[in-house]
Amino acid sequence: MKQHHSDAHTLAAAYALGALDPAEQEAFTAHLPHCEECRREAAEFEATAARLAVAASQPPPPEMRQHTLAAIDGVRQLPPRLPATASTTTLGGTLRRRAMPLALAASLVAAASFAGLAAWQHQQSEEQQQRARRAEQRLDTVSGVLAAPDARTVHGRTGNGALTTVVSSDRQNKAVFTASGLPAPAAGMTYQLWLDHDGTMVPAGLIDRDGTVLMVGDPADAGAVGLTLEPAGGSPSPTSAPLMLMRLPA
Length: 250
Hints:
The protein has five helices and eight strands; from the N terminus they run H-H-H-H-H-E-E-E-E-E-E-E-E. It is α+β, with helices and mostly antiparallel strands and 250 residues long. It folds into two domains: 63-143; 150-250, no CATH class. It starts with 11 loop residues before the first helix and ends with a strand.
């Protein structure tokens, strides 16, 4: 990646994502021990990238174990095979012939049980894969903004004490918002982001806890990013005083 800024402070996001070229990597690594702000910023971006990566993984649902055990319990187990003796050959053959229909029935029950389980697992797998794909797409988009050659970073603090960061790229016309230390909103409330377009506040997405979100809208023409506390689901316009109004670089 080629960074068009001479200020090493602008390389923290790309450093956290491993997107620097060798010369930039060496320069920023040498810069880190002497800059507490860059160390903190790089650590925050690394933590954000880790949270996003975890979001892309999907553990198997707990119901899968229960369905599997239930299907196994419904399968009849055959007795162990014992070596036949001359005196029991005829009896053994008779028992085996009688056991065959039972074994076949048990096999059919098992097949039906596992067919239903397989269909359920397939549906669950499809849903998990869709969620994973969406999470991976968000991760790719956020990573692209953070590592953009023209990425610009601004820091702020909300009225309730949270640290905030906005990374924007004019070339991609996208912005990423990160919050750290954001208090949990009251029941039925959520935090809403806004883009200030010449005094008009345009909705830019929701965030209900610490983390990183890709902002909605057109940040290239916005002058500032705002944050308010709104009813769950968001509002078309702010209904409370801003907790933060952070100017974006021109």
